[in-house]
Protein backbone atom coordinates (compact mmCIF):
# COMPACT_ATOMS: atom_id res chain seq x y z
CA UNK A 1 0.00 0.00 0.00
CA UNK A 2 1.21 3.52 -0.79
CA UNK A 3 2.04 5.36 2.44
CA UNK A 4 3.70 8.52 1.24
CA UNK A 5 4.16 10.35 -2.04
CA UNK A 6 6.42 13.33 -2.61
CA UNK A 7 7.27 15.27 -5.75
CA UNK A 8 10.33 17.54 -5.86
CA UNK A 9 12.46 19.42 -8.35
CA UNK A 10 15.63 17.45 -8.87
CA UNK A 11 18.31 20.12 -9.33
CA UNK A 12 17.59 21.94 -6.04
CA UNK A 13 15.34 19.57 -4.06
CA UNK A 14 12.44 22.04 -3.90
CA UNK A 15 9.28 20.13 -2.84
CA UNK A 16 6.51 20.70 -5.37
CA UNK A 17 3.64 18.54 -4.09
CA UNK A 18 2.88 15.61 -1.80
CA UNK A 19 0.24 13.10 -0.77
CA UNK A 20 0.11 11.46 2.65
CA UNK A 21 -1.54 8.27 3.82
CA UNK A 22 -4.81 9.03 5.62
CA UNK A 23 -4.41 6.44 8.40
CA UNK A 24 -2.19 7.07 11.42
CA UNK A 25 -0.97 3.54 12.09
CA UNK A 26 2.54 4.59 11.15
CA UNK A 27 4.34 7.84 11.88
CA UNK A 28 5.37 9.13 8.48
CA UNK A 29 7.41 12.11 9.68
CA UNK A 30 10.76 10.23 9.93
CA UNK A 31 10.23 8.93 6.40
CA UNK A 32 9.39 12.43 5.15
CA UNK A 33 12.69 13.61 6.61
CA UNK A 34 14.52 10.76 4.88
CA UNK A 35 12.84 11.71 1.60
CA UNK A 36 13.93 15.34 1.99
CA UNK A 37 17.50 14.22 2.72
CA UNK A 38 17.35 12.07 -0.39
CA UNK A 39 16.19 15.04 -2.49
CA UNK A 40 19.12 17.07 -1.13
CA UNK A 41 21.47 14.23 -2.01
CA UNK A 42 20.08 14.12 -5.54
CA UNK A 43 20.63 17.87 -5.96
CA UNK A 44 24.28 17.39 -4.99
CA UNK A 45 24.76 14.38 -7.26
CA UNK A 46 25.76 14.93 -10.85
CA UNK A 47 23.52 12.30 -12.43
CA UNK A 48 21.45 10.23 -9.98
CA UNK A 49 19.87 7.02 -11.20
CA UNK A 50 16.68 7.74 -13.15
CA UNK A 51 14.96 4.96 -11.18
CA UNK A 52 15.88 3.34 -7.88
CA UNK A 53 14.45 1.50 -4.87
CA UNK A 54 15.73 2.18 -1.36
CA UNK A 55 14.77 0.06 1.63
CA UNK A 56 13.99 1.80 4.92
CA UNK A 57 12.90 -0.45 7.79
CA UNK A 58 9.62 -2.17 6.92
CA UNK A 59 9.13 0.14 3.94
CA UNK A 60 10.75 0.78 0.55
CA UNK A 61 11.15 4.09 -1.27
CA UNK A 62 10.75 3.94 -5.05
CA UNK A 63 11.44 6.93 -7.25
CA UNK A 64 11.68 8.01 -10.87
CA UNK A 65 13.25 11.17 -12.27
CA UNK A 66 11.89 12.80 -15.42
CA UNK A 67 12.38 16.32 -16.80
CA UNK A 68 14.18 17.49 -13.64
CA UNK A 69 11.36 16.26 -11.39
CA UNK A 70 11.62 13.40 -8.89
CA UNK A 71 8.48 11.41 -8.14
CA UNK A 72 8.94 9.38 -4.95
CA UNK A 73 6.68 7.01 -3.06
CA UNK A 74 6.97 4.95 0.12
CA UNK A 75 5.32 1.50 0.24
CA UNK A 76 5.53 -1.66 2.35
CA UNK A 77 8.39 -3.96 1.36
CA UNK A 78 5.90 -6.59 0.24
CA UNK A 79 4.19 -4.20 -2.19
CA UNK A 80 4.94 -5.22 -5.83
CA UNK A 81 7.67 -3.12 -7.41
CA UNK A 82 5.91 -3.12 -10.77
CA UNK A 83 2.80 -1.48 -9.32
CA UNK A 84 4.86 1.10 -7.42
CA UNK A 85 6.60 2.23 -10.59
CA UNK A 86 3.42 2.24 -12.65
CA UNK A 87 1.81 4.38 -9.95
CA UNK A 88 4.71 6.84 -10.21
CA UNK A 89 4.49 6.86 -14.00
CA UNK A 90 0.81 7.81 -13.84
CA UNK A 91 1.67 10.69 -11.53
CA UNK A 92 4.51 11.77 -13.79
CA UNK A 93 2.36 11.90 -16.92
CA UNK A 94 -0.42 13.90 -15.26
CA UNK A 95 1.85 16.24 -13.32
CA UNK A 96 3.92 17.15 -16.36
CA UNK A 97 0.84 17.64 -18.54
CA UNK A 98 -0.57 20.08 -15.96
CA UNK A 99 2.52 21.91 -14.73
CA UNK A 100 5.33 21.13 -17.17
CA UNK A 101 5.79 24.77 -18.21
CA UNK A 102 5.63 26.08 -14.63
CA UNK A 103 8.07 23.74 -12.87
CA UNK A 104 11.21 25.75 -13.61
CA UNK A 105 9.59 29.01 -12.46
CA UNK A 106 8.36 27.65 -9.11
CA UNK A 107 9.89 29.64 -6.22
CA UNK A 108 8.03 28.48 -3.10
CA UNK A 109 7.72 24.98 -1.62
CA UNK A 110 4.60 23.00 -2.53
CA UNK A 111 3.63 25.39 -5.31
CA UNK A 112 1.51 22.60 -6.82
CA UNK A 113 -0.05 21.21 -3.66
CA UNK A 114 -3.42 21.02 -5.46
CA UNK A 115 -2.00 18.01 -7.28
CA UNK A 116 -2.64 16.09 -4.05
CA UNK A 117 -6.21 15.57 -5.30
CA UNK A 118 -4.93 13.53 -8.23
CA UNK A 119 -2.43 11.72 -5.99
CA UNK A 120 -5.18 10.59 -3.63
CA UNK A 121 -7.46 9.51 -6.49
CA UNK A 122 -4.69 7.53 -8.20
CA UNK A 123 -3.48 6.00 -4.93
CA UNK A 124 -6.90 4.44 -4.35
CA UNK A 125 -6.52 2.50 -7.61
CA UNK A 126 -3.34 0.90 -6.29
CA UNK A 127 -4.46 0.00 -2.75
CA UNK A 128 -5.63 -3.53 -3.49
CA UNK A 129 -3.02 -5.45 -5.49
CA UNK A 130 -5.57 -8.21 -6.20
CA UNK A 131 -7.96 -6.16 -8.32
CA UNK A 132 -8.33 -7.23 -11.95
CA UNK A 133 -6.71 -3.95 -13.05
CA UNK A 134 -3.64 -4.41 -10.88
CA UNK A 135 -3.32 -8.12 -11.58
CA UNK A 136 -3.21 -7.27 -15.29
CA UNK A 137 -0.46 -4.72 -14.64
CA UNK A 138 1.54 -7.28 -12.66
CA UNK A 139 1.54 -9.65 -15.64
CA UNK A 140 3.02 -7.01 -17.95
CA UNK A 141 6.65 -7.69 -18.82
CA UNK A 142 8.48 -4.52 -17.87
CA UNK A 143 12.18 -5.24 -18.36
CA UNK A 144 13.24 -1.88 -16.88
CA UNK A 145 11.77 -2.79 -13.49
CA UNK A 146 13.78 -6.01 -13.30
CA UNK A 147 17.06 -4.10 -13.63
CA UNK A 148 16.32 -1.36 -11.05
CA UNK A 149 18.80 -1.29 -8.18
CA UNK A 150 17.52 -1.90 -4.63
CA UNK A 151 19.69 -0.56 -1.81
CA UNK A 152 19.33 0.53 1.81
CA UNK A 153 18.55 4.22 2.14
CA UNK A 154 20.96 4.62 5.06
CA UNK A 155 23.81 3.46 2.83
CA UNK A 156 22.99 6.33 0.52
CA UNK A 157 22.26 9.01 3.14
CA UNK A 158 24.77 8.22 5.90
CA UNK A 159 27.74 6.68 4.14
CA UNK A 160 27.92 9.15 1.29
CA UNK A 161 27.39 6.68 -1.52
CA UNK A 162 27.00 8.63 -4.72
CA UNK A 163 23.70 8.29 -6.49
CA UNK A 164 25.43 8.56 -9.84
CA UNK A 165 27.28 5.35 -8.91
CA UNK A 166 23.85 3.71 -8.75
CA UNK A 167 23.23 5.05 -12.24
CA UNK A 168 26.35 3.27 -13.50
CA UNK A 169 25.37 0.02 -11.78
CA UNK A 170 21.79 0.23 -13.08
CA UNK A 171 23.05 0.87 -16.60
CA UNK A 172 25.35 -2.13 -16.33
CA UNK A 173 22.47 -4.31 -15.14
CA UNK A 174 20.26 -3.11 -17.99
CA UNK A 175 23.00 -3.81 -20.54
CA UNK A 176 23.62 -7.26 -19.09
CA UNK A 177 19.88 -8.02 -19.11
CA UNK A 178 19.67 -7.10 -22.82
CA UNK A 179 22.77 -9.19 -23.53
CA UNK A 180 21.38 -12.28 -21.86
CA UNK A 181 17.97 -11.74 -23.47
CA UNK A 182 19.65 -11.76 -26.90
CA UNK A 183 21.59 -14.92 -26.02
CA UNK A 184 18.42 -16.62 -24.77
CA UNK A 185 16.60 -15.66 -27.98
CA UNK A 186 19.43 -17.10 -30.09
CA UNK A 187 19.46 -20.34 -28.07
CA UNK A 188 15.70 -20.63 -28.48
CA UNK A 189 16.04 -20.19 -32.24
CA UNK A 190 18.75 -22.85 -32.39
CA UNK A 191 16.59 -25.23 -30.35
CA UNK A 192 13.70 -24.76 -32.78
CA UNK A 193 16.00 -25.47 -35.73
CA UNK A 194 17.29 -28.67 -34.12
CA UNK A 195 13.75 -29.75 -33.31
CA UNK A 196 12.10 -29.12 -36.66
CA UNK A 197 14.96 -29.47 -39.17
CA UNK A 198 14.73 -33.31 -39.34
CA UNK A 199 10.99 -33.06 -39.97
CA UNK A 200 11.55 -30.51 -42.74
CA UNK A 201 14.20 -32.75 -44.35
CA UNK A 202 11.95 -35.83 -44.23
CA UNK A 203 9.01 -33.91 -45.70
CA UNK A 204 11.26 -32.50 -48.42
CA UNK A 205 12.52 -35.98 -49.35
CA UNK A 206 8.96 -37.38 -49.43
CA UNK A 207 7.84 -34.47 -51.59
CA UNK A 208 10.82 -34.94 -53.91
CA UNK A 209 10.05 -38.68 -54.30
CA UNK A 210 6.42 -37.91 -55.01
CA UNK A 211 7.35 -35.34 -57.67
CA UNK A 212 9.87 -37.68 -59.32
CA UNK A 213 7.35 -40.51 -59.47
CA UNK A 214 4.70 -38.17 -60.83
CA UNK A 215 7.10 -36.84 -63.48
CA UNK A 216 8.30 -40.34 -64.55
CA UNK A 217 4.94 -42.04 -64.63
Topology summary:
Blueprint: E1 2-9, E2 15-20, H1 29-44, E3 51-56, E4 59-66, E5 69-76, H2 81-99, H3 116-125, H4 132-139, H5 143-146, E6 150-152, H6 153-157, H7 163-216
Parallel strand pairs: 3-6
Antiparallel strand pairs: 1-2, 1-5, 3-4, 4-5
Helix pairs in contact: 2-3
Q: Characterize the overall form.
A: elongated
Secondary-structure content class = alpha+beta
Query: SSE order, as H and E?
Result: EEHEEEHHHHEHH
Mean residue pLDDT: 80
Strand ordering within the main sheet = 2-1-5-4-3-6
Describe this entry's structure for a reader:
Helices cover 53% and strands 18% of the residues. The chain has helices at residues 29-44, 81-99, 116-125, 132-139, 143-146, 153-157, 163-216; strands at 2-9, 15-20, 51-56, 59-66, 69-76, 150-152. α2 (81-99) packs antiparallel against α3. The N and C termini lie far apart (77 Å). It is built from seven helices and six strands; from the N terminus they run ββαβββααααβαα. The model has no long low-confidence stretch (mean pLDDT 80). The protein is an alpha+beta fold and 217 residues long. The radius of gyration is 25 Å and the shape is elongated. A six-stranded mixed beta sheet has the order 2-1-5-4-3-6, sandwiched between helices.
Protein traits:
6-stranded mixed beta sheet; 18% strand; single chain; 6 strands; alpha+beta; 217 residues
What's the gist of this structure?
With 217 residues, the protein is of the alpha+beta class.
